[in-house]
Amino acid sequence: MIIESMFHSQLHADYDAFLDQQSRRFPTKETLRIDLHCHDKNSDVPDELWGRLLGLPETWLETKNLIKTLDRNGTDLITITNHNNARSCWQLLDRGYDVLVGAEFTCHFPGSALSIHVLTYGFTPEQETTLNRLRHNIFNFTRFTLENDIVTVLPHPLFFYTHKNKPDISILEKFAVMFQRFEVLNGQRGYWQNQLTRHWLESLTPEKIDGYARKHQLNPNDFCSDPYEKSFTGGSDDHNGIFAGRTGTLAHIPDLAERLIHTKRSELVLDAIRHGRTVPYGEVGKEEKLTVTFLDYFSQVAIHMEDPGLLRLLLHKGSLQDKVLCLGVSNAMQELKRHKYTLTFLKTFHEALSGTKPALLNSLGVSKEFRPALKVIKEIARAQRKQPDNFLNVIRKGIPEIYEVVTRIFFTRLNDHLAGVGDNNFSELTTDELIRKFELPTHFRALFGGEKSTDARSGISSGISSGISSATDDMTTFNLSKMLDSLTFPALASAVIAGASFAASQVIYANRPFLNDLAENLGKGQHPQKILWLTDTFADHNGVSSALQSTLKEIRKHNYPIDILTCHSQLKSKDHLIVVKPMHQFRVRSLGEQEFNVPDMIEIQQIFERGSYDRIICSTEMVMGAIALYLKKAFSVPAYFFMHTDWMEFVHRTMSLTDHESDRIRRLLRAFYLQFEGIYTLNTDHQTWLSSPEIGIDAKQVFLTQHWVDDTFQDHLKQVNSNPINSKQAKLKPGNVQPINIKSSNTKPSSTKPLHIKPDYSKPILLYVGRLSDEKGVFDLAEIYACVKTRIPNAELWIAGTGPAAKQLEIVLPDALFLGWVDKQDLPALYHKADLLLLPSRFDTFGCVVLEALTCGLPVVAYHCKGPKDIIEDQVCGYLVEDKESMAAVITRYCQQPTLQQGMRKAAMTRSQEFQPEKIMRALLRDAAMSDFQGETGHG
Question: Same domain, yes or no, for 273 and 298?
Fold first, then answer.
């Protein structure tokens, strides 16, 4: 279930109330409905660079189809505001239509990268030529319109083109002086932008306008007949003929019925706009509207796009990056055209959006698994044709349903396809093999339809299988064409819907920094500062899950503006924890028993938008890492990464890669980390590494943070402090010893059962707590323990934890006591029974077990590396050593000095108190640029 935030619901309610109030300003019988902002196929030269590079018009919409939609949605008069031309209006006038002549001119500020659109009405063909000449200087353009009594409206005043430069809010001061009429309701912009436009216009006073005029040395009377009387309009900004007329303007014409006898509607409406007798009506550009708009546009691109020409593309204006990306789009689209059945599907979907029943798909035949999607498409067509008032509700529910259906089918078919290629399918590839073989070709045809080839070593032919093993031993012969043949509908439909949804959010929130500045300036409409924290793991037996569970408790305790989101099949959502169900699950061999869940991307996007989040923290690099970057780009928000895992150490410990192959991992990590506004790291070694030339992140963007112990340990410490007893023997008197709940040492824990351990105070107990896996260095314990036993024969080694190395470890450590999985609430008792905690890992980025042990008064011996060296004060509350021999030596020395042990136990508890959760969390929020936490200093 998606829960709307208070900001989201209140924003919608306030703006809807404003529209309702506006609609009641004029008598209904004295108003005419007109959509003042819509386009057809004569908008053929787009402002967007990619459209010009690829030779794509803004729409292929026929004029007659636009008129049909306007009529269906109840407009009383036609205007078509194509970019920089009124060709459609002139053609309709020639055919006898009563038309309000209009166009949307792209105007430029001289000496600036800034350009804006200006809706312009009531001009002649000769004046159109002059306007096109003057539009390159907005000041001359607007002066000319006033002098010639041509009406202008500034559309979407908070969205304009700055060529990737952040606009200065002072541009609105010039708009306030230069324009009299403003589009306060745009059907392709969201509630927040439309509401802020309204607030800004309502804030303008004659004194402010005069002040802006003086500041910018502009005379308002050069541009406006009455610069202090601002009026409101609305328009659909429709390009596809789907929503035209559903958003627009009510023009008030007193004595309408009588005046219509002798005067054209176009003249009456133009006069009403000129004198400010207008109010907006209709629908705001919610995300589902824009998603449908982009879905339709993508479908038409696939149907109509022609090869733009390589030479033309390369010689066009634009950056090399834009040209390379457009070249890739062109290749993908040209190959897509080879799949006729897919094109038929896209065409049918496009027709359904205009109300045409998808009968063609029935004649082609649709498999049973696709019928739910076809049913939704039929409902969309029927709603557009017969229930236009319900159309938005149908697409709001229907598009996510189609996405879910086709995405699930895609994963099902992909599994079947991969399982069919034999022993070398992707699910069985080790991480080493994937890294070695992954590459993309530099020649596009190899990607889409290379010749069939067979690898002599494996006998696997080209296609998906050739990506696994080929003559070049990499994936450069991966054959996308064959894959599309197998996965046509689900792969393409899923990608197109996700892409359309992404583009919709990107359009709505593209200028978020500017909107934030404006809201702050107005003191109204400020978007809340709220974090969505993404993670692939939350309920697993690993350090990341444990840390995040403690974080969630702290979030709830102080009601921090953070929600954690994870994907899991069994967990349930609760306060500050959002759980989405997986659409697909997979494992990667050599990453252990961790299962990765693929969520519904559309669902997460809706959660982010309706939950009013404005920044992201991500804790895992896998699925949620990709989703974090998707949301960052879609919603124009900052994203931060919390680095829990040392992947370079993991690679070194678990994979047999060459230096070149290991370096590829580093480069991939660098490319990933550089996408984030900041990286949280748990130790100074990683802080230095991340800001070094190897990764290249600005040191100001690398934030040192910490973990803290769970409340279980804090509660235990309070009990100890209330009754301080410093000797281990006193604490473990028979009768006071609590049973420890343990589970078997198998990778999958068995049911919990109590284990009563009667302590033998003459035997020092060495303890290891953690995951039993190779990268944790657990096999070092065998040599360390053997060395200690030569000096202290009665020393015991207890091992608590599970993992893939459990069985092998039991073989090499036959004398150790394996406790299996120990529940968190029982760990304090276990730490009390031990004399020293051993941490033979060089993998830990922090070492939560170190802090847990210190909190319980248990000193720790660890390797002098990363996390542990930032926690342990050497020879004060524990030991930092360089190798196995040194670890065995300090263990022996420590166990033979009872007086030293007592002092170090006290020091351990003292050190643990420096890691306070509230201080750490507030520093984390400060580093995420949360305003309420700025000015605070220091970490835990």
Answer: no
- Contacts (Cβ under 8 Å, ≥6 apart) of 884: 780, 783, 784, 787, 840
Domain shared by 102 and 175, yes or no: yes
CB count within 10 Å of CB 6 equals: 9
Question: Which residue type does 333 have?
Answer: M
607 strand-pairing partners = none
pLDDT at 639 over 80: yes
**Phi, psi values for residue 462, rounded to 5°:** -65, 170
Phi, then psi, of 90 in degrees rounded to 5: -60, -40
pLDDT of residue 757: 45
Residue 427 lies in a domain: yes
Q: Rounded CA gap, 771 and 777, in Å?
A: 10
Q: Are 855 and 912 in contact (CB under 8 A)?
A: yes
Tokens of 444: 């596009």
Q: H helices within 275-387, ranges in order?
A: 287-304, 310-315, 320-336, 340-353, 359-364, 371-386
**What 8-state DSSP symbol labels residue 238?**
B
Residue-wise burial string across 470-495, b where 16 or more C-beta atoms lie within 10 A, e elsewhere: beeebbbbbbbebbbeebbbbbbbbe
Return the bridge partners of 231, or none: 181
**Pair (732, 693) in one structural domain:** no
Whole-number Å distance between alpha carbons of 626 and 639: 12
- Residue 533 and residue 636 in one domain: yes
Give the burial string for 563-594 (b: 16+ CB within 10 Å, else e). Answer: bbbbbbeeeeeeebbbbbebbbebebeeebee
Burial of 728 (0-12, 13-18, 19+ CB in 10 A): buried
Per-residue pLDDT reduced to its tens digit, 889-937: 999 999 999 889 999 999 999 999 999 999 999 999 999 999 989 876 6
Q: Name the one residue in this structure whose structure tokens are 């928000």.
A: 637
CATH code of the domain covering residue 692: 3.40.50.2000
Q: Does residue 391 sit within a domain? A: yes
22: domain CATH number is 3.20.20.140
Q: What is the pTM of this model?
A: 0.87
The answer to whether residue 72 sits within a structural domain is yes
Judged against a pLDDT cut of 80, whether residue 339 lies above it is answered with no
Eight-class DSSP state of 775: G
- Using DSSP, state whether 617 is helix, strand or coil: strand
CA distance 637 to 627: 13
Is residue 723 one of the residues assigned to a domain? no
Least confident piece of the model among 141-150, 344-353, 812-821: 344-353
**Residue among 478, 441, 318 nearest 308 (CA):** 318
CA–CA distance, 73 with 89 (Å, rounded to integer):
20
Beta strand 639-643 with 678-681: parallel, antiparallel or unpaired?
parallel
Q: What pLDDT score does 683 carry?
A: 93
216 and 332 both lie in a single domain: no
Q: Which domain holds residue 854?
A: 728-915
Rounded distance between C-alpha atoms, residue 386 and residue 267, angstroms: 32
Q: What is the CA angle 6-678-635, rounded to 5?
A: 40
Buried b / exposed e along 91-112 (16+ C-beta atoms within 10 A): ebeeeeeebbbbbbbbbbbeee
Q: Compute the distance between CA of residue 254 and CA of residue 265 in angstroms, rounded to an integer.
A: 13
Strand-pairing partners, residue 77, are 34
Q: pLDDT tens for residues 133-143? A: 999 999 999 99
Residue whose C-alpha is closest to residue 837's, from 754, 781, 886, 919:
781
Q: Tell me how far apart the alpha carbons of residues 882 and 888 are, in angstroms, rounded to a whole number.
A: 11
What is the Cα–Cα distance from 48 to 58, expressed in whole angstroms? 9
